[in-house]
């Protein structure tokens, strides 16, 4: 299984969704609710979109943990990746949030589920930095290469470099910070709207990194990993093409399948060549979420990936499947030797 693509995710089913007025000032991707549309109607549309995403992910064999949220004071709770991330080896990070009305999105029941369902060794909590005005909004602020251990981060109010370096020291990542702006010079509020790193491909709007030298360094850091780089335009970024995430699901017969989850709007913005490049390594799962995208985030923002080992013992059928997969990957000759000649 790819370390980059988690096989389980956390979704928050927010019944009182509305674009957050407290985040509009620095989120250029945020839009107003259509004129004449009631708050109740907006919330109902968003709820249907959340359910559609959960159903689409389950349909491709991704394990989905859904938590309901009936608190009307948490308009952005549908975006849990900003306050929590999980990491191979059993560590969970909890992050400091920029908007004060987002700070109570952090939920003890989510952390308790992780500890009960998965092997969690430690929880590292950075939220105590909020009174000092220091913020790092999780895998919104950082796009993590879990394989090469690089944290790509666009500087912003929501991504303080001091806490980025602290995170990288604690979790053994290399910080790769840069400035990113749109054509009007407005800083990008979250790195994950301009970049997505999968197992074999990386989608990124390099043109939005104004410093040519730093842009080339980011390009080279991605290229050295062997990934194919798909360069996105600013226009595609505004359609949320960069706000995607690779996941690992299962086919009906139990085989691994890699999928790139994104919104239908994002997929429509991609060229046929870009779609073909993505589909060389994984299939695209696209879900229409226009209401949620009013809040300035898309499918990636809705998903907190679970990069932890599951606690539940493997059932006999799963053990048989695992053995079969090993044998498939390492075929043997009748006398018990691997095909490549090793004993």
TrEMBL record:
Domain of life: Bacteria
Pfam families in UniProt: DDAH_eukar
Keywords of the record: Transferase
Gene Ontology MF terms: transferase activity
InterPro entries in UniProt: Amdntrnsf_FN0238
Keyword Magnesium tagged: no
Protein name: Amidinotransferase
